[in-house]
Amino acid sequence: MPGLLEVSNLQIALKKGDKTINAVDNVSFSINEGEIAGLAGETGCGKTLTALSVAGLLPQKAKILGGEIIFGGRRLTSLNEKDYCGIRGKEISMIFQEVRQSLNPLIKVGRQIREALELNGVSTNIAEGKNNKRRTVEMLFRLGFDEPKKIYNAYPHQLSGGMCQLIMSAIAVITNPRLLLADEPSSSLDAQAQERILSMLVEMNREHKTAVLIISHDLSVIRSFCSRFLVMYAGKIVEEGRADALYSPLHPYTQALIGAIPGRDKRGRNLANIPGKVPSVEDNFTGCPFAPRCIKAQNICVKSFPGAVENGGGKVFCHFPGGGNQNG
Ligand code: SF4
Description:
Blueprint: E1 5-16, E2 19-31, E3 36-40, H1 47-54, E4 62-71, E5 74-75, H2 81-85, E6 92-95, H3 99-102, H4 109-119, H5 126-142, H6 148-152, H7 161-173, E7 179-183, H8 191-208, E8 211-216, H9 219-225, E9 228-233, E10 236-242, H10 252-259, H11 299-303, E11 308-311, E12 314-317
Parallel strand pairs: 3-8, 3-9, 6-7, 7-8
Antiparallel strand pairs: 1-2, 1-4, 4-5, 9-10, 10-12, 11-12
């Protein structure tokens, strides 16, 4: 049975001056109704562009060059902006990473949350308007605001970055979309608020069967809240599988990301870091883009990009998968 979201061979090009660069390269994955999946990788690996393409919100300098995105049987890659407006916000919502830029500084945050309901077909007559306000205040309370009515009447500049992130999440979830794309939903929050927002996504998933894609550089979040994971590196998917496989990942990059997670068992020890940096999208690779940072790299790695090795319902793209942790 096809998934709620089917992304096949997606290719996104970024324009940089006169050059056109492959920023997302042949990416395929699916998300089922009611599933929580996680997309991981360092900044600059193509995660956000992939999510923006699903939401139909790619920046002007980016363009889909190939592949397709099917959502609920509809080919999103063929929709015009008008058709997209009927889906975005109502059926597909997104929590953005850049919260300050996503909120209108001149409108009270409560009004902005209510507008999400009204723009998506919830009536604006007086009775419904009161109901929308009640729903908004309840949502703010659920997100942990002790004085939700006060927050309702606040402007974005009166709130901290973490609070704005919670407001952004409220805007995205209040319409109970079928698919929620959550781009680093908890990155600027303290541990308590982080737990609250992620728990709310899980509750929404249980109550409304909302499919959720959590995009994060932090694999511990994905291991705790998702049933399936995808790891991207330099615009490509390099490993995917069930979240419990993250206890013994096969790709050296996934192993390195896991090794960099802080934990009680690592107290008093230096946290492992991944040597080098993510290659620029301008770099052209014929082989594995992780090779310059990989302690297992061999000659073949710089010559050819590895094919998929199937493993227990997952896949890994590596010439030498498995073995020890890249970070020991
Ligand atoms: S293909 Fe080679 S360089 Fe790439 S991750 Fe696997 S072992 Fe490392």
